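Lab notebook page, bench 4
Experiment: in silico fold of construct C2
Operator: M.H.
Input chain length: 345 residues
Purpose: comparison with the prior construct
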Amino acid sequence: MRPHDILLPVAAGLCCKPGGFHIDPVRPVERAVITHGHSDHARPGHGAVLATQETLDMMRLRYGDNFARSTQAIRYGEEIRLGDVKIKVHPAGHVLGSAQIAVSCKDLCIVASGDYKDAIDPTCTPFEVVPCDVFITEATFGLPVFRHGDAADEVKKLLASVALFPERAHLVGAYSLGKAQRVIALLREQGYDAPVYLHGAMEGITRYYESRGIALGELRLVKGMKKADLAGTITLAPPTATSDIWTRRFPDPVTAFASGWMRVRARARQRGVELPLVISDHADWDGLTATIAATGAGEVWVTHGQEDALVHWCRARGLAARPLDLVGYGDEEEHEVVAADEAET
């Protein structure tokens, strides 16, 4: 049994022919196994979907009750058989409900990690290293320049700016699934107990996090607030909203953006970001390389990101490595679209 007899990259994504399913397919398929709820991985229109309960709930929130013909929830550590393979899911530490998919057939185990991070995150189950023969890793930040640092220090920068400019509102661009809730939780860990304001597009998923036991403190919607009353406040909004006319309701807003891409100063300038916050829900270079080593995998497949540098790093250490060149995946920013009824314009 060879790895490509179990998982094979095809136009729709990773295909497991002996199991009769695809992992995070980019087009509708008969059976899909989904790693997490971000829209570049979790798409509607499949026949059957297998995922953690949180990921299924997230898809239902985003796409409606009929996002698939049928669904099945799987818990971390649970193993089930699909066709001729066994699959088991493990925490990926990316967002709430995110999972790595371990696919085993005979004596060979392949782990498809989806998106992951090894950094501490108070809003989701920590990443778990899964020993395997083949490890499929993302490479969103797969260059040595990307070292994210401590997210708590970035939140301290935000709070220092709020203290320095009490007459201004602070708008933090953050993806509505995972990043926004993590920023709020980190603010609370730093002792910030004032209300945190939300763009309307943030409310559904953020309230869902609360329903799963994630404490986020007092949250309020921006809609209906007077401009003067938003001075000195912090508001979370989709990244696209921080650069449109929606921002006119805030007094002299300071625009921030929480993203690993804020390590690149040119990106911050291009977006007009006054306060870049290097907070990422993806592993940085050190996290990627440490994870690959920890899995003990002799073969590494690299996907969606800076593939070449990570492939070179693996080969230099005697590992068999190759890029998968899958199309359709990327940072959540590229796929997050604010619906018209959420825009609050």
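Observations: Confidence is low (pLDDT under 50) at residues 337-345. The longest strand covers residues 85-91.
Next step: discuss at group meeting.
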